[in-house]
Structures are given as C-alpha cells and as structure tokens.
Design brief:
five-stranded mixed beta sheet, PROPPIN, mainly beta, 367 residues
Length: 367
C-alpha cells in the first residue's frame, strides 16, 4: 500500500493560548498486511485499530518513546501482532515491537531515511530513497535481498500475502516497476514498463499474480500479470490528478482506487471466472483474458477533495474500508449488480480521545 506523509491531520492549536502545546497531528496511515486493522503514526506516537468491529487496540506503553526527543512516528506497519515503526527523531531507524512478549524485540539501522516499511510474518522490508532491503524476521534479522531502485520519495513497495513472496518496487528507469519472486533466499526478477511517466501507486493481488499501477501524469490504472508482465486491463478516470491508493479484492474481481478528486471508486476487473484464487495459496494461473479497457467505475463514495485516503476491501462481502488523514474511518457497501453511490454502513472519528463518532459532521455528509 502507498503511505501518506505530506498531509496533516486535525491540528488547530489553541487560539486562546498560542504558546500552548498543539494537539498531535497524523503523519502516516497504513492498513495491516493481512487486513482487519490499521495503524496511525502521529506527532505523539502511534495507534492501532481493528476495523470489524471497529475498536482501539492497546499496544505499546503510552509514553513511547520519549527519550527527551518526542514520540513522533513517520511510518508504521503491523502484521500479526508485530509492529514496525520509524521514529521521527531517528528516520534511519526501524524499531520492532512484538505484542506476544510485550516488548521491543529488535531494531534496524539503515544508511538513510526510511520512506516506508512493509511487514510480513516472515520478513520486514525497509524502503529508502533509492534502495530496498529485505530482512528475515527470525533470529538476528539477516539481510535477504538488497535492491537498487530509481528515486522513490513516496516509498512505493508492495508485497504479496502468498507463501512464496512477490515483491514489487520501482525499477531504475522512469515508469518502470520490478517484480521480484522470492523463495528461500533466492529470487527471479522481471521488469515491466508500466507507464511513460513516473509511477504514482502500486498494488498486488493477495496471491501476487496481478499487479496494478497508476501514473503521475495521466489518469490511467493498469493491471498486469506478474508472471510474464502482460498488460491485462486499462482503466481510467477523467480529471484525476493524483492516485492515493490501489487495492485488489481478495478474489481479484474488483479494484478499489482513492483519488484527489474527493472520491473512492470500485472498478470491475475482467479476470474471468475462477482465474484467481481467493486465498494466498499457489494455484494454477488459469486462463487470463486478452487486453480489456474500461473508463467507468462500478461504485463511488465521496470523501473530502485533496485529502489523502487509503482504501482496502473489507472482510464483509462487497464492502470497502477507508481511512483518511482527517482522522475518519468509513465502512461502505457497494452493489455488484448495479453501478452508483456506495452506502455508508458506519463512520468513526479515530482521532478523537474517545475513538468514536457514528455519524459524519455536516461538511462531510455527501450522501
């Protein structure tokens, strides 16, 4: 998943006392690797929330990790009770927390600022400006893969949930992505020329067989087969300037997209019946279709314009979950048989002290 890092959450300060310490702001949002929870990095630490049911998850001690330098977190990712965080005061460092033992269990020092972190139960991926490092999470965390990339200020990198990990990152050239199939320390690579301009966003299906990419310079999302780099589908949306996140449904029938134009879209994918498995296990590739193009989304949900939002498909059938840098969580349902606006099932303001709020404020009540 892409990691928001430029927009700030609600931080209005104290107009009656401008010298007072301002409230914390959101620096980073990420859904966890397996789905079902998300992490929030703030200027004052981080928080974890389950999504279904929606609830705050107590994790580390509340005073993390002051050390006289503040507890801001610029990147955070969680997987099966393990949390990796990048502290603002030491951006070249990754700290690892394990809920099962209730303590910090490791740390990594990188050569430069860590732009993002990806985490699986078996490995951790550190993304720097022009390098990606993959470490084994067992033992002393040995280095498994060291990958050079082109400039990557957004920290773009995705990994699959499949037993044999598939990793996608930027290639060395503009518009190029690298697909890396990793198994037992070995790997094979494939370069895909995805776009003529820079890549803005990437996503993988759960089993790593499908890759979605978006461009920074045109309103196109493309779907490729990772096995041979074949272009399978091209989708578009008029007037979109920036893509914030892409996500496949578990059965790879749908692609969710969040954009700067104040909307989250769900597109139908022309992958054919039973061609993609619903779990992360390795299966036969099946028959994938010839190239297919579409410009219209199946379903839409309105959010504030120019506000970064992340989207994933929920565990409930035909639902999406959305988190925004404005501190709001939405669960929405779409009708797979009829196009149109999604129905909001619930909304919570997770950046309030009580982590509650079942309805939207009027300025966000689009539906």
């Amino acid at each position: 998943m892409a990691s928001p890092s430029t927009a700030a959450g609600p931080n209005i300060g104290n107009p009656r006392n401008p010298d007072a310490t301002p409230p914390p702001s959101i620096l980073h949002l990420s859904f966890n690797h397996e789905g079902g929870s998300f992490a929030v990095g703030t200027t004052d630490g981080f928080m974890i929330f389950n999504t279904d049911p929606f609830e705050f998850v107590p994790t580390i001690p509340e005073d993390f990790p002051k050390n006289g330098q503040g507890g801001g977190i610029s990147a955070v990712q969680r997987s099966l009770g393990v949390v990796a965080v990048v502290p603002v005061f030491r951006p070249d460092k990754i700290m690892i927390w394990d809920d099962s033992v209730g303590k910090w269990t490791g740390q990594l020092y990188l050569g430069s600022e860590v732009k993002s972190v990806r985490l699986r139960p078996d490995c951790i991926v550190a993304v720097e400006m022009q390098k990606i490092s993959v470490y084994d999470l067992t033992g002393n965390m040995p280095l498994l893969h060291d990958i050079k990339t082109g400039p990557n200020p957004k920290g773009l990198c995705v990994i699959s949930r499949s037993k044999q990990m598939v990793l996608v990152c930027l290639g060395l050239n503009k518009g190029e992505v690298m697909v890396k199939h990793c198994l037992l320390g070995l790997s094979r690579e494939r370069l895909i020329k995805a776009h003529d301009s820079d890549v803005a966003c990437v996503a993988l299906s759960n089993n790593g067989k499908l890759l979605a990419t978006a461009s920074t310079n045109c309103m196109l999302f493309r779907v490729f087969a990772t096995s041979d780099g074949r272009l399978l589908q091209e989708l578009g949306k008029d007037s979109v300037r920036e893509i914030y996140s892409l996500c496949f449904s578990s059965d790879a029938k749908w692609l969710a997209v969040s954009t700067n134009k104040g909307a989250v879209h769900v597109f139908s994918l022309n992958m054919g019946p039973r061609s993609i498995g619903t779990d992360g296990s390795e299966q036969d590739d099946g028959i994938l279709p010839d190239y297919f193009s579409s410009g219209r989304s199946m379903a839409q949900f309105r959010v504030p314009e120019d506000m970064q939002h992340m989207v994933v498909f929920g565990h409930q059938k035909n639902t999406v979950e959305i988190i925004g840098m404005n501190g709001r969580f939405h669960r929405c349902k779409f009708d797979p048989m009829r196009s149109g606006e999604m129905t909001q099932m619930e909304c919570h303001n997770f950046f309030q002290p009580d982590f509650a709020g079942d309805s939207l404020d009027s300025e966000y009540a689009f539906l």
